[in-house]
Every structure is written in C-alpha cells, then in structure tokens.
Amino acid sequence: MKYLKQYLILISWASCLSFCRVVAQHVMPSDKEATKETANLYNNLKRLAARGYMFGHQDDLAYGVEWKYKEGRSDVKDVTGDYPAVYGWELGGLERPNSEENLDRVPFKKMKQFIKAGYERGGIITISWHADSPFGAQKGAWDTTHGTVASVLPGGSNHALYKEWLDKVASFISSLKGSKGEAIPVLFRPFHEHTGNWFWWGKNACTDFEYKTLWRFTNYYLQKEKKLHNLLWVYNTSGNFQTREEFLERYPGDDMVDVLSFDAYQYGDPQKEKWFEINTNKGLALIGEIAKEKDKLFALAETGYEAIPYANWWTETLLKAIGDNKISYVLVWRNHGCQSDTKKMHYYAPYKGQSSEPDFVKFYNMDRTLFEKDISSIKLYQ
Length: 382
Ligand code: BMA
What we know:
By secondary structure, the chain is of the alpha/beta class. It has helices spanning 2-25, 36-51, 75-80, 108-120, 148-152, 159-174, 208-225, 244-248, 275-294, 313-322, 357-365, 372-376, and strands at residues 53-58, 63-64, 67-68, 86-90, 124-129, 186-190, 231-238, 259-266, 297-305, 329-332, 337-338, 345-346, 369-370.
C-alpha cells in the first residue's frame, strides 16, 4: 500500500512535470484564439530558427523571368531542384471594385491555388498588401498625402470604405483552406516599410499614434469581427532605423505582433562598399535582441539585389549580412523580368543561366539555409 501511494505520487509528479513542460514549450501567438495549425506553426518556427533560416520568394509559382503560369514551375526550382520554403503573395488591388487581379497582374483566383499548392507541400505563406490610397488609385500605395491614415480610422471620412476593403481581405484569407478544410496559416505583413517615406502609412504621412491605431483597428477588425484566427502578424519597417527606439516608435503592442522584421535592399556594388552587409547585419542583431526579450520571431522580410549583377552575392554578401542572427526567414522579391516602361530587368532570384546561379546553388546547399525539402519533413503545422 505504502509503495502504491508513493508510486502514485511519483506518477502524478512526473505527469505534472511533463505537462508543465508541454505548457511551457507551447506558447500561443498574439491571437489567443489562433487555430491549432497557426499556433503549431508559431511554436515550430521558434524551434526551427535554432537550426537555420528559410528562403522565401515573392510570386514564386506564378511567373519567372520569361515565363508565366506554367504548372509546377518556379525559377528557384529550375536552379536548385527545390522550391522555396516561404512563398510571398501580394493583395494590393484586391480593394479595387470588382478586382480580379493584383497590382502585379496575378489573378486572385490563381493566387489562391498557388497558396494551397505551396501549403500542401509544407511551405509557409506570407502576404503583404500594397493597398491603394483610399483617396484614389492613381498613385496606388505610393501616395504620401497627409491625413490619409486618419481618414480610414474610426470617425474618418474613409472609414466605411476601409471596412469594405478589410471585408475583401477577410473573404480572400478565409477562402484559403487545406485539404481537411483547415484555415491555412498566413504570416500577414500589412503596412510595411512604415519608417520609409513612400507609402500613405509612411513616416511623414501619419503620426505614430495614427499608425498604431491603424494597426490595432485592422487587427481588431480581422480577428474579432471577421473571426480570422489563422494570421501571424508581421511588424515591418524599412532598413533605415539606427536604434531600438526608432524601430519600435510605431510598434502597436505585443498583443498584436508575432514577427519583427524589416526590409533592406542592396544597391551599388557590394565589392566596393559593404554598407548593405554591415547595416543589415546590425539591424538584424538589434531586432533579434528585441525579439528575444519579447519572445517573438524575427525575419528579413524583403531583400534582394535587382538583377543580381554580382555573381557571388548570395554567399559573399547576403549570407554575411544575415550572419549568426537566428532569423526565421529571408525573402527575396519577385522575378518580373523585363519592365516594359523602363526596359530594365526586375528580378531578385536567379533563373536558369543567370550569372549567380552557381553561387545560389552553393547557398542552397548550406546547412543553415532551408528550402522546401528541408522543412516539408518537419511538418510545421503539426
Ligand atoms: C515593387 C515592385 C513593383 C511592384 C510592387 C508590389 O517592389 O516590384 O513592380 O508592383 O513591388 O509588388
């Protein structure tokens, strides 16, 4: 009897300990009602960051340099034999009346299919939104008229219109379902690069308070009114901040953010000047510290070197820019190809035959860089 009691106590202690451990390990993202797959993704991404960072590419499955809408094709896959681990998609244009395609002419119907295909293979989905100015689509998101943010907030002249836009965003996101009918988790990155001066939500176009209110209202509306619980919220500045205060100036709050990030692009010749490498590395270290304190993820949400004119950019520059920072992912922008107006090449991932192809394969083969084959076996949603 005595032994039985001790045995029972031991068992209950052991199960309590393992229960506590499970509870301690499994934290909820900022949305306390997040779906199972979304919460799993959040927790698994935290563990994954210790092992390496995922590579992402914008519009990867839709088109590449000199091709469009070819089933299963991807410039990244043409070069490495593998898909990226993260797929970036863009909602800009969805807010327009009867809009069928986004600002980069990707039909929303096709985008949904690509998102499902990437998710079914175990990939991660991130979505940005270059929403038009509510005062008119002429300059799109690149309209810096003061007062625009204030106009979409409660009490503002465009508030009702803004809610209609959010209804469209919600309807798009809630249509993203996996094969078992589960909501596909999405890393949502609205109102990005807000420390820059080029969007209507940018630094000079609205006050810190207005920006935070825009974020908080959007989060509230999508989560509480539209009941979207499959979003991880990605806070994103441009790469121009120098201090943690600057990075956090418009931070809307831990209760509405899951990933800290910024965007930074390479310009000039990285062989002559190292500012991109140094600045990006410094910025990542800085937001990495904040992420650690706040127990959040962090990422280099957009980067690239337009047309990749330096053949070793991947291992000589980007790899060093990331350094030892335990980011979750790095995403390069879209492979548009030749721009009809400027006749300039606009692409950020190599394609078959592009001069940085061998170096990108080297980058692909590194232990710390994760592509689809690395992550699909880990089952990040379970
Ligand atoms: C920019 C460019 C544009 C594009 C926009 C939104 O960086 O690629 O051509 O329309 O992003 O995707």
